[in-house]
User: Which sequence fits this backbone?
């Protein structure tokens, strides 16, 4: 776990709300406190899609996403279950957060909980040569918290079982430190 102080808050907010900088990540929660509080649960509600077996990984219903989901549904894991991202891609709800946050007044508080998508998690595990597999990692996360005029990004890892080996944590922390350098 690493805490990274964001120096260029204006650029971070512009990238988070207007640009595609964070769109590859999924988001499990967004909490924004302005005149009222808003809480968005990013967990994909599969019932909304009527049990469609071709539900895209990101919860969208574009033809391209459905096609990609069909291609990936042939690849099950060892337990016979098919992998699906549990949370919506940030890019699908970014415009909603923009509408909530835009205006002359800065929010009193916000917290955005992002998750690395499967492909990025696999990449980090491979590059770090940790010995861990996707089965060992529940999630790689980072939480952006704006409070008292400051913005902090905190990394986190959630392993399937307890381990004294911190190589996954270190690899994720290193990746996020480099990713957040653009906001120095």
Assistant:
């Amino acid at each position: 776990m690493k805490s990274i102080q964001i120096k260029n808050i204006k650029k971070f907010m512009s990238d988070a709300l207007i640009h595609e900088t964070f769109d590859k990540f999924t988001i499990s929660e967004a909490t924004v406190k302005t005149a009222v509080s808003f809480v968005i649960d990013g967990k994909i509600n599969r019932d909304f899609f009527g049990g469609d077996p071709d539900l895209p990984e990101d919860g969208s219903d574009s033809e391209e996403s459905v096609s990609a989901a069909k291609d990936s549904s042939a690849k099950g894991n060892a337990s016979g279950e098919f992998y699906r991202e549990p949370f919506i891609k940030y890019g699908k709800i970014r415009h909603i957060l923009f509408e909530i946050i835009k205006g002359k007044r800065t929010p009193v508080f916000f917290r955005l909980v992002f998750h690395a998508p499967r492909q990025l998690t696999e990449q980090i595990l491979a590059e770090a040569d940790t010995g861990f597999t996707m089965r060992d990692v529940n999630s790689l996360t980072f939480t952006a918290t704006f409070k008292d005029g400051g913005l902090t990004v905190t990394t986190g890892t959630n392993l399937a079982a307890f381990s004294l080996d911190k190589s996954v944590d270190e690899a994720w922390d290193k990746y996020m430190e480099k990713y957040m350098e653009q906001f120095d």
The chain has a mean pLDDT of 85.
